[in-house]
Amino acid sequence: MPEAVAHEVAEVARETMEKLAFVFVLDEAAAVEPAAEPEHRVRVAFQGPRDGALEVALSDATLPELAANMLGVEDPAELSAGERTDALRELANVICGNLLPRLFGEEAEFALATPVAVPDAAKQALESPAADCRLALENGACRVRLFLKDPGSRPRDDRAGKGEAS
């Protein structure tokens, strides 16, 4: 996977979590244990110049805080499992919406499907990711994976052409 793509995915996820949910990513030196697979996962499929999906997964320890922050609730225990999942779905939607223009250019138009929770049986259903980022959080971990249907074509790695007319 191109390192620049993985860096963009991680950066967009970090920015979005911090701005939208006030959940902060620890510095890059804080490694996330590969065995620590986040329990809650959602997927946003997209179609456009490139088709694919973005998966966002959060650990059980992080999801209540994230949902409470996003929904303006002081006590995370007040939220139902459905409300927590809805917050994660919205987070994934915003990350995907912010990521695609950075990878494929502002002029590219994409249609995003409604984010869906990924059942345990389907967690490994897609091919190898184009990017797989693990982020250490104060109370857990986040994993963001970008899947692209056509592995022959990659997101652009340069930013020189951004804003130029075709």
What are the SSEs and their pairings?
Blueprint: H1 3-21, E1 40-47, E2 52-58, H2 63-71, H3 81-104, E3 111-112, E4 116-117, E5 131-137, E6 140-148
Antiparallel strand pairs: 1-2, 1-3, 1-4, 2-6, 5-6
Helix pairs in contact: 1-3, 2-3
Description:
The chain has a single domain (3-148), classed as CheC-like (Chemotaxis protein chec), CATH 3.40.1550. The chain is of the alpha+beta class and 166 residues long. A hairpin with a 2-residue loop joins β5 (131-137) and β6. The chain contains 3 helices and 6 strands; from the N terminus they run αββααββββ. Mean pLDDT is 83; it is low at 156-166. α2 (63-71) packs across α3. Strands 1, 2, 3, 4, 5 and 6 form a 6-stranded antiparallel β-sheet that branches. The chain is globular.
Series of secondary-structure elements, N-terminal to C-terminal: HEEHHEEEE
Structural class: alpha+beta
- Going by CATH, the homologous superfamily would be CheC-like
- State the domain count: 1
End-to-end distance: 27 Å
CATH C-level name: Alpha Beta
Q: Compute the gyration radius: what is it?
A: 16 Å
The poorly predicted ranges are 156-166
Average pLDDT rating: 83
The number of distinct β-strands equals 6
- Beta strand %: 15-25%
Summed up, the helix count is: 3
Query: Could you say what the CATH topology is called?
Result: Chemotaxis protein chec
Biggest pleated sheet: 6 strands, antiparallel
Which percent range fits the helix content?
25-40%
Shape: globular
Please state the second-level CATH architecture: 3-Layer(aba) Sandwich
